[in-house]
Amino acid sequence: MSDFFKSVGFKILMGVISLLLVLIVISAATGVPILANVAGFITSPLNSASANAVKNLDATKKSAAELQAENDKLESQIETLRTQLVDYYNLKQENVRLWKYYDIKVKNPSYDMMPAAVIRRDPNENFYSFTADKGLLAGVSVNDPVITENGLIGWVDKVGTTTCTVKTILSPDTKVGVIDKNSRDSGVISGGTKYADQNKTMMTQISAKNTIKPGDIVTTTGIGGIYPPNIIVGEVSELKYNDFDTSLYAVIKPYEDVKNVKDVVIITGFTGQGEISIKNPLSTVSPTQPSTTPATGATQ
Amino acid sequence: MERRYSAIRYLAYIIEIIVFYSLSSTPGLIPNIFGGAPIFLLPIAITIAVFENEISGMFIGLFCGILLDVCGSYSQGFFAITLAILCFFLGFLSDNYIKIKFLTIIFTAVLIIVVLLSLHFFFFFVLQDYSDSGWFFMQHYLSRIICTIAVTPIIYFLNKLLAENIREQA
After folding, report:
1. A12 lies in a domain?
2. Which residues 150-169 on chain B approach chain A with CB closer than 8 angstroms?
3. ipTM for the complex shown
4. Do A174 and A88 have their domain in common?
5. Number of domains in chain A
6. Chain B residues with CB inside 8 Å of A119's CB?
7. What pLDDT does A251 receive?
8. The dihedral of CA A107, A110, A111, A112: what is its sign?
9. What's the CATH number for B2-30+37-165?
10. Which residue ranges make up each domain of chain B?
């Protein structure tokens, strides 16, 4: 038995585990996912390619009657045309995607936006988080809001060099200050374990004297400087009481299919990002003056 | 000559791992079955480790674990560490103590899959203090475990084919 622990194999195992633990501690301390960055360089192009698949390639037939030289020439032309066709479809998809967000940009000129595509979903993932194909190099930071043309869908949880992990509003880790546009009641969006599969989330910390009713539209408040104000989150589906503490919460149905979203926009900057706009007479922190340039990397 | 066969065999393993990783992580490709989808890399790591020695098994487990951790939004390193250790010991045991039989390997794989995914549930759901943990386990993790176990025999035979045929014949 002692020979086993003295074997070269066991020493190598201990070395590898120690290295892994060091990398994990460094990643946790600095917030930089080292393993993900390294593996991302290898796997991201593959994920992008498989996510953008798949078209039926027209099978080409060689004519038996054509001369070999003419066949080679025609094959070369077909190859060129195929490449152009792939580029055409890619550009067409990108054009459609960008037109969707042009409207958002026109209404919100202060937003700095970065369109991104969903390239990876973890089969182990519990609350439909995903990986998008933009990272630090594209100017994405942790806590950047992620939206689609139908509203808010999440926030950037981790950022790698070329990719980022987005946590959705279906996750209990999400905390977004929201307001019911109809009744002016405020609350906090936080995912529920039983509602995530139904593409619904929860609005908690609602006042007992609220006048929220089903059908009301819920938007972000912008307080806290994490999310821009007036981004649609969804509409109220029903009001319920918590089984454990009898507090009231509203079930919110987002307008976007968060579980199956394919294209998103990451807001990398906006006017008011990072500001705390609540005036609390008991607070020892004085409220900040609005700045003209948006801050980045605000903490949640 | 054996080195050449080994190199080809490990290249085949790596291609297999990357292909299955791409299949499982591509959005919308593999549908959820009763709330869960198979995690192909777990049985792949386990079944390769039993056909190789402990060091190779460890690195295969490490590679599969890193890919699984890269996908997720949870802390890095859970699958990397656990699969590296488990595959190391699997390789050691299959080299020295246990015979590679279908039922033995499938039973071992089932045990490892159940334990690993249960640990994953404990660390990344229960300890995160999310509500309705029992319901969530039955709704998601149980189907994930069953789906992963269901694909294990196919992956076992695939890796057995690679391990036995891409090897210098005695």
Report:
1. no
2. none
3. 0.79
4. no
5. 2
6. 27
7. 94
8. positive
9. 1.10.1760
10. 2-30+37-165
User: In this predicted model, which residue has the larger pLDDT, A129 or A65?
Assistant: A129
Nearest CB neighbour to B70, from listed A35, A53, A262: A35
pLDDT digits (tens, 9 = 90+) for A79-95: 888 888 888 888 887 78
Asked if residue A213 and residue A86 are part of one domain, the reply reads no
The answer on A148 and A183 residing in a single domain is yes
Domain hosting residue A78, numbered range: 68-107
Contact B80 A46 (CB under 8 A): no
The reply to whether residue A260 touches residue B84, judged by beta carbons under 8 angstroms, is no
Q: Which chain B positions have a beta carbon within 8 Å of A193's beta carbon?
A: 130-133, 135-136
Q: Does B34 touch chain A (CB under 8 A)?
A: no
CATH code assigned at A135: 2.40.10.340
CA nearest neighbour of B60 among B39, B86, B37, B78: B86
Q: Which residue of A has its CA nearest to B24?
A: A123
CB contact under 8 A, B76 and A194: no
CA distance B140 to B138: 6
**pLDDT band at residue A52, thresholds of 50, 70 and 90?**
low
A200 lies in the same domain as A86: no
A173 contacts A167 by C-beta, under 8 angstroms? yes
Spell out which residues of chain B touch residue A17, defining contact as CB-CB under 8 Å.
81, 84-85
Distance, in angstroms, between B134 CA and closest chain A CA? 11
Chain B residues whose CB is inside 8 A of the A242 CB are: none
Task: Locate B39 and state its tokens.
Answer: 């995690």
* CA torsion, ordered A18, A19, A23, A29, to nearest 10 deg: 40
Whose tokens are 């690195």? That residue is: B59
Least confident of A39-43, A153-157, A279-283: A279-283
Lowest mean pLDDT among A24-28, A48-52, A78-82, B28-32: A48-52
- E strand or H helix at A164, and its extent? strand A164-168
